[in-house]
Write a structure and sequence with these properties.
- By secondary structure, the protein is an alpha+beta fold.
- The protein has two helices and eight strands, in the order ββαβαβββββ.
- It has helices at residues 25-40, 61-79, and strands at residues 4-7, 16-22, 50-58, 81-92, 98-108, 122-123, 129-133, 136-144.
- The strands form two sheets. Strands 1, 2, 6, 7 and 8 form a five-stranded antiparallel beta sheet that branches.
- A hairpin with a 5-residue loop joins strand 4 (81-92) and strand 5 (98-108).
- Helix 1 (25-40) packs parallel to helix 2 (61-79).
- The longest helix is centred in the middle third of the chain and has 19 residues, at 61-79.
Length: 145
């Protein structure tokens, strides 16, 4: 597995930006989700006591990734969850659509134990990009902080 992400300090001054990549769509989605989590909290301070399965479908990988990352922001806001990790599988269906099955783990936010970082308000479409170059998948994402 060669998924990874790096924060882009020179892209968004008031927000947070990152570039994620992987050798497959699944690895890309995993790296991007981990970047969102790392933006919000130090995941090493969160235990995997809470678990949620997420299934999504979209006509293209860019729309699917946007929805997947937005789900993380929604769960943080609506249910007060700090995330520990994610596991995700992304495949292209026989009709050409893209499908995601993921699991996120974490626990209710505890400001006394969790190293909270930034309060991500939304995933934005500003400079948003998902591309495939050969077998490598890459995404650039700007988060509204």
């Amino acid at each position: 597995m060669t998924s990874r992400f790096r924060f882009l300090d020179d892209v968004a001054l008031a927000d947070s930006a990152f570039e994620a990549s992987g050798d497959s769509p699944s690895e890309l989605f995993q790296a991007a989700a981990r970047a969102v989590i790392e933006t919000m909290v130090n995941p090493l301070t969160v235990t995997p006591a809470w678990r949620r399965a997420i299934e999504r479908q979209a006509p293209d990988p860019a729309s699917l990734l946007f929805d997947w990352l937005s789900d993380l922001v929604y769960l943080k806001d609506a249910e007060g969850i700090a995330f520990h990790d994610v596991d995700v599988a992304v495949v292209q269906g026989p009709g050409g659509d893209w499908r995601l099955r993921g699991t996120v783990t974490g626990e209710p936010i505890d400001q006394g134990r969790h190293e909270l970082r930034a309060d991500v308000k939304a995933v934005t479409k500003h400079l948003y990009e998902v591309r495939q170059e050969g077998t490598r998948w890459t995404a650039r994402v700007v988060l509204d902080i």
